[in-house]
Design brief:
The protein has about 140 residues and is mostly helical. It is about 80% helix and about 0% strand.
Length: about 140
């Protein structure tokens, strides 16, 4: 259970800092969006907003599972930007190429952490709110 809490904290911090970064340093995030994508600056703000909403959703057990699903999908959706960054290291001279490679690999680790930290949130909710468990059993059809 401790490792799940640690994963949850890591995911929360990752998206809280990352989401905030979209608003504090939008020019940096704009550079990593492939130029072939439309509405690049709005995409930076939209993804930052959903990173922050997802991070906040992780805090509340009631929303944790939904936040996990959203953050998992969002992480997959922004992976092309990380691949673009990795394939074009000359556009990011202040970042060593090895860090770009590590960052891309961290996407996989991040997906695992999101899945692990939020997978059984609905089961944990039943432990915290035992009346929900009784209600869900009483609503099951006989047969």
């Amino acid at each position: 259970m401790l490792s799940k809490k640690i994963s949850l904290v890591i995911v929360f911090i990752w998206f809280l800092i990352g989401g905030t970064g979209h608003f504090v340093a939008p020019d940096f995030f704009l550079k990593i969006v492939p130029p072939s994508l439309p509405l690049r600056l709005p995409a930076v703000y939209i993804t930052g907003f959903f990173e922050l909403v997802g991070a906040l959703g992780l805090v509340h057990l009631r929303y944790r599972r939904a936040a996990g699903i959203g953050l998992f999908a969002l992480t997959i959706a922004v992976t092309p930007a990380n691949i673009y960054m990795w394939l074009n290291p000359q556009l990011f001279p202040s970042i060593p190429e090895i860090l770009l490679t590590i960052r891309l690999a961290l996407q996989i680790v991040l997906l695992i952490f999101i899945w692990w930290a939020t997978l059984s949130a609905s089961e944990e909710k039943l432990k915290i709110y035992p009346r929900l468990k009784k209600r869900s059993k009483s609503q099951e059809p006989d047969g």
